[in-house]
Every structure is written in structure tokens, then in C-alpha cells.
Amino acid sequence: MTFANLGLSAPIVKALEQKGYKEPTPIQLKAIPVVLKGRDVLAAAQTGTGKTAAFTLPIMHALSKSSSSKRQIKALIITPTRELAAQIQDNLNLYGKYLSLKNTVLFGGVSAGPQIQDLKYGVDIVVATPGRLLDLCDQGLCNLEAVEMLVLDEADRMLDMGFISDIRKIVKLLPKKRQNLLFSATFSKEIRVLTKEFLNDPVSVEVDNKTTAAQTVKQRAYRCDGAEKPNLAVTLIAKGKWKQVLVFTRTKHGADRLTKHLNASVIESAAIHGGKSQNARVRALDDFKAGRIRVLVATDIAARGIDINQLPHVMNYELPNVPEDYIHRIGRTGRAGQEGEAVSLVSNEERAFFTDIQQLIGQSIELEIRKGYEPKEWPARMPTTHEVQKARDARRNKMIKERGPRPPRGSAEKRPAKRKFSGGGRSGSKAKRPPRSKD
Questions:
Q1: Whether residue 252 is found in the same domain as residue 158
Q2: Cβ distance 124 to 70 under 8 Å?
Q3: Domain count, the chain
Q4: Which residue from 100, 194, 214, 439 lies 20 to 30 Å from 328 (Cα-Cα)?
Q5: CA-CA-CA-CA torsion for 130, 93, 206, 247, nearest 10 degrees?
Q6: Does residue 220 sit in the same domain as residue 176?
Q7: CA–CA gap between residue 57 and residue 26 (Å, rounded)
């Protein structure tokens, strides 16, 4: 089966062939014909399966055949992160190389000026994160009244990030008659509810999520104490002579701490997470792709949309709380039939997460011990995921009790003011200075 057999137009097929794409992936094979028929689609596919092309290709085909020549927003693609939005736009530019369609991307963290200019001149396709899109719509700078196709990409992640309210507001701005495509990693209960709310008699499309991302990836894991993780990470990268590795942490602060440690160990690294400016995130990603840094340390949310050809190594510095996120992570390597390696560092506190991951992927991963990093003796009984989470909640509650709750973001409540210095200096002193001597 080729892309031409799926019914895609010659200009699109030509662009795909020039890039070396000849055969559609399973998700593309199942989704593209259904989208071309104009049906609503509920699709489950992991990162690395070619899901972006599964909706961008038929969208561009449909719009290029449209009888309307007026330049207005006909397709809207909503994503949870800036990186994913930028990646989708890259794909639109690549696949639409020989089409006259115009697109733009709308997300925060950068000046809205260029985005507003694109909207002013007219575009056919908009890729956007919810916040910036609503801001521009509220200002009357973005009109969605002509949208014919809506895509909710990484819908499960958008629910996790609390975007459901924003999505509902956006949908109210759209025409009732439109085609809807929802892509998610899983068909969870929450996704099913979302489907009933936004989709009309959808066709369900699903590929084998459990093994798709792991088939070409060699998975390894090392037992270690949590305190030894920074040094073990340095040893694995340095001794293994890894030239390019994407490292995952659970938190922004953890990403920054590890990046500082790696750089101090003469391993060029940069962190990418929600606390970084968009320019810093783009610069770090560009440096990583160009080989100017060896290690990119990322949180799960920031890593959405990172697409690097032939990435050789992924490291789970900290295991994810949600087993499905493990598949997303290791799916960054081993793409397009290439081999890759995923290495996980597992502390005693993470054993329950490690067990859940193995159950999800249906594979047993041997826990190795690196010489010089032998962990303390582990308890005979592994804690359950519930027990691990309960212990974390207890530590968090203890910390909050000791320091007191922080005022909510945007609250008028202020922290206690710092005591003003009253020793006659500039800061806090109301005393007048003596007149300057004329001498």
C-alpha cells in the first residue's frame, strides 16, 4: 500500500516521496481513508507512530480540493504544548511543499506580533495552543467562523494539563457543522466522555499501542540509590560515549539540577521545561539537534513534539508516575525502523512504577547493577504504587504544614513584607541626607 493508493493528491505524494516516505504506517493506513470520507475520527496512537501525518495529510488534501479560494481559517489544530505545535507546523510545511496552502502557529512565550500579521494576511490552517488562541480570539484578532475541520491532538495530555475549560470555550466559537478528529494515546474513560461532547458518530481507529514504540528499542534498567543517580547518569553517558541522549525528569527543578551537574562534569547539556522562555526552549532544542550539546534534559510536558531523527539514546532519570508516559518517552528513539536504546535508573522508591511499566508493555526488563553504584539492600516486599504515592503525599503535607500554604497564583494576598533597613542607607530610610560639602 502506498500513499497514492490512499487517495492523496499528486503534490502531496510527490513531497512524501522526496522525503523518502513510501509506505503509510498502520495509523496512517487506518485513519487517512476515514478522514478523507469526511467522518469524525477518534484515534488512539502513541508518539512515533506517524499520527501527525495521519491527520495533516488528509486535511491538506481536502483543503487543496476546496472550491473556496478565500484565504480564511478552514482547519484548526489544537495541541497541548508549544513544541508539539511547532513540530506540526514543520510537517505541514514539509508535506504541503507543492500546495498553495498557508498556515501559521499560535502559542505563548513569544511576541504575538508576527502571529497577528499572519492572521491579518490570511491563512488556511492554524496550529495553536489553547491559551494564546483564546487571547487572540478575545481581542477579535482571530476569526474561527469558517473552520471546517477541528483536530484535538494529544487530547489525553490536554486533559491532564487542565485545558478542558479552554477547549470548550474554543469549540463554542466554531461552526456547529464541521469535521472533528481527536487523537489520544489511550481511550480512557475521560477521553470517551470528551468524545461524546465534541464528536459526532466517530469512527474509532486504534493501533497496537503497547508494543509499537518499543519494538526497535533495547530497554535496560539499573538499580541504584536515588542519591547516586546524578553520578550514575554521568558515568553511563561518559563511559558509553553517548553523543546524543534525551533525559527525562519528573520536575522542572529536577531537570535544572541534573543539567547543572552534567555541565559541571564537562558534559554539554541544556534543560527544557515549562519554566523556560520559549526562546530558551527553541535554542536548547536547536543546539541538541545540531550536536552542539550532548544531553537535553526534559520534563514530559516539554518533550511533547520533540521529533529527532535517529536519536540513539533515551534515559529515564526518574520513572514516570503514569506507565503510558514511559512508552511516550522511549518512543523518541527507535523511530522509522532505526534501533535505539532506552535506559532507566530505578531507585527503591520507584519499584512500583517499574512493575507497572513492565505489566503495561508486556515485557520483563532485567534490573542490572553497575559496578561502583551498588544500592543498599532493598526490602523483600515491593511497595505498591498506592503506597509510594501515599508516602509522597505525606512528605508534601508535612512540608506544607511546616512552611504554611502558599497563596494561590493571582491572589491579592501578599507574602510578609521584608523588614526595612533603617540604618540611614538608601534602602528603607526616610532620613534626609546632610547637605554635600562645598569643599
A1: no
A2: no
A3: 2
A4: 194
A5: -70
A6: no
A7: 14
Q: What is the pLDDT of residues 384-411, one digit of tens each?
A: 666 666 777 777 777 777 776 555 545 4
- Coil vs helix vs strand at 133: helix
Specify whether 336 is located in the same domain as 230: yes
Distance between CA atoms of residues 75 and 198, nearest Å: 16
Read off the pLDDT band of 413 (50, 70, 90): very low
Give 325-345 pLDDT, tens digit per residue. 888 788 778 765 678 899 999
- The answer to whether residues 146 and 201 belong to one domain is yes
Residue 266 in any domain: the answer is: yes
For residues 143 and 237, membership in a common domain is answered with no
- Is 438's pLDDT higher than 50? no
The whole-angstrom separation of Cα 171 and Cα 193 is 15
| DSSP secondary structure, 366-426, as one string | -EE--TT-PPPPPPSSPPPHHHHHHHHHHHHHHHHHHH-PPPPTT-S--PPPPPPP-SSSS
Average pLDDT score over residue span 86-96: 92
Q: Which grid coordinates belong to 332?
A: 523518541
**Residue 409 belongs to a domain:** no
In terms of phi and psi (left: phi > 0; alpha: psi -120 to 50; beta: otherwise), the region of 282 is alpha
